[in-house]
Design brief:
By secondary structure, the protein is mainly α. The chain has 7 helices and no strands. The protein is elongated, with a radius of gyration of 16 Å.
């Protein structure tokens, strides 16, 4: 279920490939297929992390901070596709990725109290969130007129 929820933005806010292709991007920008593969793996790791916490302690037994971080992270994750591809607001897309990175960082520490393995599974998400933030910054700067 978590995997499907994280995949929802791709359905609600589909990529406009023509517009995205027209943007100036740094030479190190991954291809769309690579980004899609990365997210597929990350969504699986995110879902597994949350499933481990659910299995170990039950989500209803976690702290309000833990749940709030998940909700903020999820909403920010989903909002990126809206900002980037629907609103075409590269500045907001950048800010959004920064929120995802920050909340993922905090989420790792909040998850540690429930499961070290579940927290470790979020590290690739954190790495990608920081890479995505840097990429979003470069795309914003290259395309701001």
């Amino acid at each position: 279920m978590v995997y499907l929820l994280f995949s929802l933005s791709g359905i609600l806010f589909p990529i406009n490939p023509t517009w995205y292709a027209s943007l100036k991007k740094p030479s190190w920008t991954p291809t769309g297929k690579t980004i899609g593969f990365i997210w597929a793996v990350l969504y699986a790791l995110i879902a597994l992390s949350l499933a481990i916490v659910e299995n170990k302690v039950g989500l209803k037994n976690t702290s309000i901070t833990f749940m709030l971080l998940w909700v903020i992270n999820y909403l920010a994750n989903q909002a990126f596709s809206f900002f980037e591809f629907i609103a075409k607001r590269l500045d907001l897309a950048f800010l959004d990725t920064a929120i995802v990175a920050i909340t993922t960082f905090l989420l790792i520490f909040a998850t540690l109290q429930y499961s070290v393995l579940a927290a470790i599974l979020l590290i690739p998400y954190l790495i990608w969130a920081f890479v995505a933030t840097i990429l979003a910054w470069f795309i914003y700067r290259l395309n701001s007129y």
